[in-house]
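Narrative summary of target 7.
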Amino acid sequence: THGYKQAVDLFSELIRHVISWQVVYEQMRNNILRTLSPEDIGELVPIMKSTLRIS
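Modeled conformation, tokenized:
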């Protein structure tokens, strides 16, 4: 049972990290959309997709 509890704890921690990365990604995306012009966003999309492969 000790291994099972460790596995559940590890999986729970992994889920928390994934959710926190999703929140950070969404906040960054919203900030970028508010700040940049559509032309600037068009130029940055390929860079953002390659560096933020978390979605």
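The chain has a mean pLDDT of 85.
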